[in-house]
Amino acid sequence: MRAQLRAIIVGFSSLLTGLRITLGQVFKPTVTVQYPHQSLQMAPRFRGHIELVRDEETGKPLCMVCKACQKACPSDCISVDGIKPEGEKRKFPTEFMLDFTKCSLCAACVEACKTEAIRFSREYNKVGATAKDFHLDLLKRLEEQAQ
Ligand code: SF4
Ligand code: SF4
After folding, report:
1. Which residues partner with 120 through β-bridges?
2. Which residues, judged by CB distance below 6 Å to any ligand atom, belong to the binding site of ligand 2?
3. What mean pLDDT is predicted for residues 31-58?
4. Which of 38, 47, 94, 101 is disulfide-compatible with 120, CB 3.0–4.6 A?
């Protein structure tokens, strides 16, 4: 009889402890989001793949096709090409490809760019089925962002 009574008391005490913990969590602020319908703001120092930066005044890429980023990349991820249109004082990119499968997010390219024409994006949920899905056309991406 005594053993049964002890078991009831222990069980009831355990139940109260569980309820106390659950209620404690109910009143704490929510730290999760309903992904993929909602997503978290990435920290300012977060490094997604690199992206091209647009000149706010002209709407054109800031990149002048100096290829310093391409030369600085230790993993040979970047391929840049461009032309100097008639009447323009500088070159504009016609191709800016990134092989993100090889990128270590080291920042050598971003640091090498004197015109701040590339930066790390906030892209954190890039997915793909093949390596080709991570061969990124950054110029096309910039144009799509403008639409
Ligand atoms: S992104 Fe910067 S470093 Fe790279 S080619 Fe363009 S201007 Fe040069
Ligand atoms: S972050 Fe580093 S590895 Fe990635 S593209 Fe730039 S230089 Fe290359």
Report:
1. 50
2. 50, 72-73, 75, 77-78, 103-109
3. 91
4. 47
> What is d(CA 56, CA 54) in angstroms, rounded to the nearest whole number?
6
pLDDT at 125: 87
pLDDT digits (tens, 9 = 90+) for 89-122: 999 999 999 999 999 999 999 999 999 999 999 9
As a CATH number, domain 50-146 is 3.30.70.3270
Task: Choose one of 80, 102, 103 to mutate for the ligand 2 pocket test, by most ligand atoms within 8 angstroms of C-beta.
Answer: 103
Is pTM, for the whole model, over 0.70?
yes
The CA 105 to ligand 2 mean position distance, Å, reads: 5
Joined together, the tokens standing for residue 39 give 């997503």
Helices and strands in the chain, H and E counts:
4, 5
The pLDDT of 46-58, averaged and rounded, is: 95
The CB-side HSE value for 49 (13 A sphere, CA atoms) comes to 22
Which pLDDT value is given to residue 1?
81
Ligand 1 pocket, residues with Cβ under 6 angstroms: 63-69, 80, 112-113, 115, 117-118
